[in-house]
Structure formats: structure tokens, C-alpha cells
Amino acid sequence: MQVEISRDVFRLAQVFTISRGSRTEAKVLTVRVSDGAHQGWGECVPYARYDETLESVEAEIAGLPAEFTREGLMELLPAGAARNAVDCALWDLEAKRAGKRAWELAGLPVPEPEITAYTLSLDTPDAMREQAAKNAHRPLLKIKLGTPDDMPRLEAVRAGAPDAKVIIDANEGWSAEVYADLAPHLMRLGVALVEQPLPAGDDEALIGMERPVPVCADESCHDRASLPGLKGKYDVVNIKLDKTGGLTEALKLREAALAEGYGIMVGCMVGSSLAMAPATLVAQGAMVTDLDGPLLLAEDRDEPLIFDDAGVHPPKAALWG
């Protein structure tokens, strides 16, 4: 088994800001796995929040043995970006070997387009109102918040896009007091979901707290091992392949979370269409799909995913799977 790792940079269409900082480009690792006859590829986005860097993730992948399988990968690498890129590359390789699509190999029905959120980055209320008005035609807007002074921002977005469905991502930026103060206003402003309002290590306050709007676990949910710690705190789990460590675990997490009564959100880091392609399989029938990474880029892969009024479409074979 031959493994090649490369670093790729994609310029963003505009500065993207969350409560942790801003960026102007997406830095990703591209992994190609070859058996000599066929080659598969995958992409990951190392995330500093989880103590990942391009260098550390590349080293994890480079440390793999000469021979391994997708099933064995679960024991060789922990959940995270490194395993994600290799796992998705192996799915692509297996699909090419079999002459079938990845969803056939997974025993899934043919995937359909899914409406995806479009993210408005954190900014001043006036700037966020302008962003919202520019994108008011989109059916689902995701607002990046996460400061103690978010109410004017939320009011501004609703004024700019009065008819759009709105979800909020606080990126662990609120305290229990701030969230409790904002919660009644979320209903008034028609917010459909709140993502990770409190820090992952300090979310016990959600137990017993009134949740008028569904609360989604992002940083608090990585893989199936996370589920026991979510009880009583969250209504929805955000499945991201860079957290689960690939499509294999993501599909298992979706099944386990649904069995425990959680709603499903499928999200992404800011990456290219190659990173989103496997996630479109997990997103089928999800409560919320948030795979807008390519829409935030100024440049993308060849054969990129198609985004239109029907949503984000599953990948063509020329891209992945």
C-alpha cells in the first residue's frame, strides 16, 4: 500500500471569522492511497482546537505500517483528522476497485441533494446584517456568534434575512448565564437550533436547563464514545468526519445517535469539495446539513460538488467514491 501526503491551500472568498479567530485561506492535507492498480484520495483539515497541526497530522499518517485495511485503521489511528483522510481515501480506493459507488459498498440508498446551511462569519451587527441581506435568498443561514454581546448581531441578521431559517453556532463562546439570558430571545427570533453554546469541558450546566430551542453538540461530540456524556445536555449531535476519523465511524455514529433519540446535524471544517464529498452520504435525511465549505472558497478541486436550489449534490465519481 502506497500512501502519499500533500499540503494544499485554498483561498477563501472573503475573511472568515469565528469566536476563536479569523482566516483567509483553508490549509488541508490531501492523502492518496494506491495499491499499484488503483488510487483513492481523501482530505482532512487539521484543527488547532483539537491540538492538531498540519505537521502532527502528517506525522500520524506517515507512521502507518506498510500494509493496513480500512477496518484495521480504527485501531491504528485515533478519531481525528489523520484517520479521516486515510479512511476516506480507502473508501474511494475500494469503490474504484469494485467499479461501484461508495454508497453501494456501504449498503446505502442512492443519495439525493440536501439543503445546506450557508455560514455568516462573526462581525459587527451592521456587517452581519449586510451579509444576511446579501444571502437572504438562501433557505438556511448559520450565524457564527460566541461573544457576550451577540444579541445585536442576531437582531441584525434577522432584519437582513427575515424569511430565512436561522441556526446559531456559538463555538463554545457563551457562559451558562449568557445562554440563559439569550434563550428566550432565540424563540422570538425564530432560531431553529443552537450549536455548542457552552465549552465542551464545562457543559454540565445544560443539564436541567430549559432548552426552548434544540441544542446541538459539536465540540462535545466526536465519535460513538462521546454519546454517554451527552445525555441530558443535548438534543442533536453534529457529525464531522474530521472529528469521527472518517466515513466509517461517521456512519456508525449516525446509527448509534439515532438509536438514542438524537437529531443529526452533519457539519464540516472549511475545506474543499473533496472533504465534503463523503459527508454527503452521512447527511442523507439529516435534521441539518452544514456542508458549505466549498461555497466559502475562491477556488476548489476539479470536478467540484454541485450546489444549487436543491442543495448540495452527491459527488460525481470523478471527484470521489
Question: What does this entry look like structurally?
Answer:
The protein has 321 residues and is an alpha/beta fold. It contains eleven helices and 13 strands. The chain has helices at 54-62, 70-76, 81-98, 102-105, 125-134, 151-160, 176-188, 241-244, 247-259, 273-276, 279-282; strands spanning 2-18, 21-34, 39-44, 118-120, 140-144, 165-169, 191-195, 215-217, 236-239, 263-266, 288-289, 307-308, 311-312. Strands 4-5-6-7-8-9-10-11 form an eight-stranded parallel β-sheet. A three-stranded antiparallel β-sheet has the order 1-2-3. A hairpin with a 2-residue loop joins strand 12 and strand 13 (311-312). Helix 1 (54-62) crosses helix 3 and helix 5 (125-134) runs parallel beside helix 6 (151-160). The protein starts with a strand and ends in a 9-residue tail after the last strand. The mean pLDDT is 95.
Features:
single chain, 321 residues, alpha/beta, eight-stranded parallel beta sheet, three-stranded antiparallel beta sheet, 11 helices, 13 strands, 22% strand, globular
Concise account of the structure shown:
This protein has 321 residues and is α/β, with parallel strands linked by helices. The protein is built from eleven helices and 13 strands.
Average pLDDT for all residues: 95
Count every beta strand, where a strand is a DSSP E run of 2 or more residues: 13
Rg, Å, rounded: 19 Å
| Low-pLDDT runs | none
Please report the number of helical segments: 11
Main sheet summary: 8 strands, parallel
Distance between the termini: 18 Å
Major β-sheet strand ordering: 4-5-6-7-8-9-10-11
User: Helicity range of the residues?
Assistant: 25-40%
Shape: globular
